[in-house]
Write a structure and sequence with these properties.
Its cofactor is Ca(2+). By secondary structure, the protein is mainly beta. The chain contains 4 helices and 25 strands. It has a single domain, classed as Tachylectin-2, Chain A (5 Propeller), CATH 2.115.10. Strands 2, 3, 4, 5, 6 and 25 form a 6-stranded mixed β-sheet that branches. Strand 17 and strand 18 form a beta hairpin. It binds beta-D-fructofuranose. Beta-D-fructofuranose (FRU) binds next to strand 2, strand 7, strand 11, strand 15 and strand 20.
Length: 424
């Protein structure tokens, strides 16, 4: 293992400003996800799935193995018969079951010959392998043609630690299995100097690792979600964070409580076992409290950074839909500018504000997400809305310079491979 001291790289965070966020327009058809019909199919009646993590290589290419596509998903059992989730009318309270899912999230995998119609694989790690109660989002990386896979993910409660576990993908004519995944290695936690800790803010976020190789300098880095370090309430929303706003928009209210950032770390070794935290690439102080699951698309020599965010995590005086937001730069360390002026790339329509979430933009312009909840035709179904916990229709976007456009819609959970790796 080669270890080298990298020193401080030039890295000034770019700012997603309040002025940028004022340009966010819900329901612009070029940045709005087509309506998801309430009559959607579910992947499984036994489990809910949400964050979907396609198997990929370090360059971001979605990979199949011996012709088998593989996805990892955050997964939790559904409890239709558990007395704990039966309401006072004797009905299954699926909303409460769904809302409780984060506390029992586990990593599962699924496989397919067609890039859709996913077949159940099972749990990636056996019970007891992961050191904490929750297995939160990350990235499964196919390392080589021996089928070795590094799963980077977040071990949560107690604490939040970026970890990884190595295993192997094995295929037969009939399916795929994941073997190994027995030794979880802690990589790093928030440091309190650049990235906020739990002690500084009980609502802190530090999760969702996305390792990658920089196409320009060839080094191994990792994006993750964080909040800017400092005690809760101590952040300052100044001129820089506000940006160039029209008269009457200077009041920032309580927006100092919203402090999201996209973090980055650099590996000191080729295996990605030893990491150094660097200052955030992007901060959203005074704008939004969550920039989740950050990831890159490398295209035309540019760095397109995408991250998911919610309406409810926006600060006072700014708003936008649940969906995926994006920023572009000519070099890894920025400066980043918001795509489409505002940052919004693909948001939910106002008529179905919670229809999907956790969008992941693949290098082929296909965007996968999960169905959260969709309003129903109450007369037909007797319900106001239907909970998903399953794959949403994939959306196609075109990324052009500093703009993006919705251009296509595909089948539910369509995640076709971009490369096929034949195992040796
Ligand atoms: C996004 C997310 C991730 C987190 C997981 C927890 O949907 O909030 O940031 O890892 O879900 O369930």
């Amino acid at each position: 293992m080669k270890t080298e001291k990298l020193g401080q790289l030039p890295n000034q965070p770019s700012l997603w400003t309040r002025a940028d966020a004022l340009k966010v327009h819900t329901d612009d058809p070029t940045t709005t996800q087509p309506l998801v019909h309430w009559n959607f199919p579910v992947l499984s009646n036994e489990v809910f799935i949400w964050d979907t993590m396609p198997l990929r290589d370090m360059d971001g290419n979605v990979a199949s193995v011996n012709g088998w596509s593989v996805i990892f998903t955050l997964t939790a059992d559904r409890h239709p018969n558990d007395p704990e989730y039966i309401d006072k009318n004797g009905m299954y309270d699926i909303s409460r079951d769904w809302n409780d899912r984060h506390g029992r999230a586990k990593m599962y995998y699924w496989f397919s010959r067609t890039g859709k119609d996913w077949q159940w694989g099972g749990r990636v790690m056996a019970e007891g392998v992961s050191p904490t109660t929750r297995e939160w989002a990350g990235s499964p990386i196919l390392l080589n043609d021996r089928g070795e896979v590094d799963l980077y993910y977040t071990a949560v409660t107690p604490g939040a630690t970026i970890v990884k576990v190595r295993g192997r993908v094995v295929t037969t004519e009939h399916g795929v299995s994941m073997v190994g995944f027995e030794k979880v290695k802690p990589l790093f936690e928030a440091d309190g100097k650049m990235y906020q800790t739990e002690a500084q803010n009980p609502f802190w976020g530090f999760r969702d690792p996305w390792p990658f190789r920089d196409p320009k300098d060839g080094k191994l880095y990792m994006l993750f979600e964080g909040n800017v370090a400092g005690e809760r309430g101590s952040h300052v929303v100044g001129k820089a964070e506000i940006g160039d706003v029209p008269p009457g928009y200077e009041n920032v209210g309580n927006s100092r409580f919203q402090t999201a950032c996209v973090g980055i770390a650099v590996a000191r070794d080729e295996d990605g076992d030893d990491w150094e935290l660097l200052p955030p690439l992007l901060t959203a102080v005074g704008v939004n409290d969550q920039t989740e699951r950050p990831h890159f698309l490398f295209q035309d020599g540019k760095y397109y950074m995408f991250t998911i965010s919610h309406k409810f995590t926006y600060a006072d005086g700014v708003t936008g839909p649940d969906g995926v937001y994006g920023f572009v730069a000519d070099s890894l360390f920025g400066p980043y500018v918001p795509l489409n002026g505002s940052g919004l790339v693909l948001g939910n329509p106002s008529s179905q504000p919670f229809q999907t979430y956790s969008h992941y933009v693949m290098p082929n312009g296909l965007v996968t997400s999960f169905i959260d909840s969709v309003p129903t035709d109450e007369l037909t179904t007797g319900m106001k809305f239907r909970i998903g916990g399953t794959e949403a229709p994939t959306v196609g976007i075109k990324v052009k310079g500093q703009q993006t456009f919705v251009v296509a819609e595909y089948d539910y959970g369509y995640i076709p491979p971009m490369i096929d790796v034949t195992l040796k």
